[in-house]
Amino acid sequence: MTPYILRRLILVVPTxxxxxxxNFFLVQMAPGGPLETMIARITGEEVTAESRAxxxxxxxxxxxxxxxxxxxxxxxxxxxxxxxLMEKLRELYGFDKPLYVRYLTxxxxxxxxxxxxxxxxxxxxxxxxxxxxxxxxxLGIWSTLLVYLVSIPLGIAKSVRxxxxxxxxxxxxxxxxxAVPVFLFAVILVILFAGGNYFAWFPLRGLVSDGFADMTIxxxxxxxxxxxxxxxxxxLIGSFASLTMLTKNSFLDEIGKQxxxxxxxxxxxxxTILYGHVFRNSMLIVISGFPAxxxxxxxxxxxxxxxxxxxxxxGLMGFEATMSRDYPVMFSTLYVFTLLGLVLNILSDITYCxxxxxxxxxxxxxx
Length: 367
What we know:
Elements: H1 2-29, H2 34-43, H3 49-57, H4 83-92, H5 99-111, H6 125-160, H7 165-179, H8 182-193, H9 217-237, H10 240-255, H11 258-265, H12 270-288, H13 290-308, H14 314-324, H15 327-355, H16 361-366
Family: Belongs to the binding-protein-dependent transport system permease family.
Domain ABC transmembrane type-1: 133-348
Subcellular location: Cell inner membrane; Cell membrane
């Protein structure tokens, strides 16, 4: 097992470099960029220390931006900005250096987890990630945990009662739950239970209430769970369907195998057969989907939920960084989630071996 894990860890490096490289050059070819965003901000509100300093130094320059598009090779509005200010902007964001130099510098910095500073927020990217991480971790862990706690028992119950009324009606509920988009269900929950038009039982925004620091430990726990209830429930509804059906089909496949018939012929109890033999074998395919499920919950699935419930997490930060072309935040978020996904895949393989010692990845790789 150790040689296999070492090979997988070594493969993490070229995989990370490949993904970051493709995205780096694709982003460079996309229209718009940090220069255009900063020019717009300088001419509007002074949102960062850099823009305030640059605007003060260029107070005598004309900073009005026309509605027409900028000529090729120039930033939008660059024709109305003094050459000195434009050069300072290019130097501020590193665009005074060749493309390959910026690319190699990014790889060198990312290798030591130096993500630099945000272009438009007066903080380092690491500070931003530390600030947003608790929200995304809360959503990801609670949602994934509840999905598995609901889906696995439900899938087992459906397999044992295959073809019964319970199986039919629960399948109908599962299909309805999977058909409703997560964001739509979240909006429905807000309208019904967060003061939209009916009940105001749950808070609409934030992870904790005002005055959280002054609460007792028990009050803090209850307040936190109160805020997490609707977002996690919205993510749960849209995610448990596939895992439920996967668990059911896996159990049905195992129940029909010869070793189950032999165990029944020996007089073993049904619960002993299901949870002592069938469960371990059928869970292999469920375990294999854990990394993808967690990453989906952690980033993709939580993005719209964070927007709707005003939860300031990594998903929302990455989305806003993409819209504003905040390159350090964009690439750092991609790097973190890619690395996390690769590591979780390796952990999934290790779990395979712990659940079923018969699996030998070393023998498979040699074959």
